Amino acid sequence: MSMPQVGQPAPDFELPNEKGEIVRLSDQRGQPVILFFYPKDDTPGCTAEVCNLRDDYSQFRQAGIVLLGISADPVKSHAKFQRKYSLPFSLLADVDTEVCQAYGVWVTKKLFGREYMGIARTTFAIDAQGVISHVFEGVDPEIHSRELLTSLGAATG
Fold first, then answer.
1. Where exactly are the structural domains of the chain?
2. Residue 78 near residue 17 (C-beta atoms within 8 A)
3. Neighbours of 8 (CB within 10 A)
4. Is 45 helix (H, G, I), strand (E, B) or coil?
5. Overall average pLDDT of the 46-61 stretch
6. Which top CATH class is 14-151?
7. Report field, pTM of the whole predicted structure over 0.90
8. Crossing angle (nearest 10°) for helices 44-55 and 144-151
9. Are the C-beta atoms of 81 and 75 separated by less than 8 Å?
10. How far from the centroid of its chain's Cα atoms is residue 6's Cα?
11. Strands 66-71 and 90-93
């Protein structure tokens, strides 16, 4: 599927979080959402990304922004990853990759000449009405949190 664009409604979904509780995007209406897709729990780039988001979490909350991470890892993996790094936001398990496909981030990747399917590190900013306001592709996990806060006008320092 192609990637939804700025100005389009964000595709709704329901996925289990790290506790096995069902999270629906439509339940977040009324508040902006940062929906970040990342390749794999507990890998260097993904750890850098979530830890930077964790460290800036108070600024996201101050701005009323909900953070939701999605990967194809199972609930158990998310629970372990969240505990290990004390992450204050939900990680959602898209094990069948349906949501990744709906957002156009389930793509062919290459590593050492080998092709495989995986998640392209991409973030969608969704406004309080459920419409995509920003799409961040080719995310640099080391600076992404600051980039989000600056782009969304939520940085406080």
1. 14-151
2. yes
3. 11
4. helix
5. 93
6. alpha beta
7. yes
8. 40
9. no
10. 16
11. parallel
Enter the tokens of residue 155.
């940085």
- Name the average pLDDT for the chain: 92
Asked if 46 is an active-site residue, the reply is yes
Q: Which of 35, 46, 50, 154 is catalytic?
A: 46
Q: Answer whether 92's CB lies under 8 Å from 17's CB.
A: yes
Residue whose pair of structure tokens reads 């920003």 in the numeric block: 134
DSSP per-residue codes, 4-27? P-TTSBPPP-EEE-TTS-EEEGGG
Cα distance between residue 94 and residue 75, in whole Å: 9
- What is the end-to-end Cα distance of the chain in Å, rounded? 38
Q: Which residue has the tokens 């990680």?
A: 91
Structure tokens at 137: 């592709």
Residue with tokens 């979904």: 13
CA distance 17 to 73: 11
Kindly tell me if the per-residue pLDDT of 1 is higher than 90: no
What DSSP state is assigned to residue 102? H
Taking residue 88's Cβ as centre, other Cβ atoms within 10 Å add up to 13
The type of residue at 133 is S
Q: How far apart are CA 6 and CA 78, in angstroms?
A: 29
Tokens representing 46 are 């993904």
Q: Which of 6-10, 71-75, 85-89, 145-149 has the lowest mean pLDDT?
A: 145-149
